[in-house]
Amino acid sequence: MSKNVDLNTVTEQDLERIQGVGRDHAKKIVEFRKQKGSFKSWEDLKEIPGIPAHMLDTLKRSGLNIGGRAA
Q: For the chain, how far is it from start to end, CA to CA, in angstroms?
């Protein structure tokens, strides 16, 4: 994935394409963002019920950024 893609704007479908994420986790991430607002840091993902700790590393390695800041 391009390093120009922000976790705060990425689509559920794009998240699903990241190996190790899958449909259920992608949906949880996008729904959490819709309910709680933009992610400020990678640590915010730890607040999502059912998201395993290793998912942070998976998303960081995928090239996503948060607010224009790479992992």
A: 13
